[in-house]
Amino acid sequence: MKFEIVRTKRYGETVMGQLLADGGYVADTCENAKEMLPTGTYTIGITKVGKKVAYVGAAKGRSQQIGTANGVYGKFRHKIMVGKAVCPGCLIDTQNHYNRLFERLRKATARGTTLTVEIKERLTS
């Protein structure tokens, strides 16, 4: 299963985009420009130890957690936030989007599917 994050708009330190799965829309994304991963292809992993965690990263120490938050200025750092974009830097319904995404990742992993995400930039200001 191939995921893509297409970064489309930059507003200061906020970068908005879309998460796609096999070409179809999954969620809007929000990242902090100072902390985001460079463009490229990464593996997606999941863990479930008390709390469901999905992460993107190719090497230890250089991963980003996919998660919930309403914007880039919260206490949650190194995250690719998913939800429904309502204005630059702000997402709503993040928990529902994350839960659906995590379940999709969990089922694909259980089937033995390799999960990757390609991060692309088509940024406009």
Describe this structure in words.
- The protein is globular.
- With 125 residues, the protein is mainly beta.
- A hairpin with a 2-residue loop joins strand 7 and strand 8 (90-92).
- The N and C termini lie far apart (31 Å).
- Helices cover 14% and strands 56% of the residues.
- It has 1 helix and 9 strands.
- Strands 1-2-3-7-6-5-4-9 form an 8-stranded mixed barrel.
Q: Ends: how far apart?
A: 31 Å
| Average of pLDDT | 86
Q: How large is the share of residues in beta strands?
A: over 45%
Rg (C-alpha, Å): 13 Å
The profile of the biggest β sheet is:
8 strands, mixed, barrel
Global structural class: mainly beta
- Pick out the low-confidence regions: none
Helix content: 10-25%
How are the strands of the biggest sheet laid out side by side? 1-2-3-7-6-5-4-9
Secondary-structure element order, as H and E? Answer: EEEEEEEEHE
Q: Got a strand count?
A: 9
Structure annotation, total helices: 1
The quaternary state of the protein chains shown equals: single chain
Shape: globular
Brief summary of the model shown:
The chain has 125 residues and is mainly beta. The chain has one helix at 94-110, and strands spanning 2-11, 14-21, 24-32, 40-49, 51-57, 63-67, 79-87, 90-92, 116-124.
Descriptive labels:
single chain, 14% helix, globular, eight-stranded mixed barrel, 125 residues
Q: How would the blueprint of this fold be written?
A:
Elements: E1 2-11, E2 14-21, E3 24-32, E4 40-49, E5 51-57, E6 63-67, E7 79-87, E8 90-92, H1 94-110, E9 116-124
Parallel strand pairs: 1-9, 6-7
Antiparallel strand pairs: 1-2, 2-3, 3-7, 4-5, 4-9, 5-6, 7-8
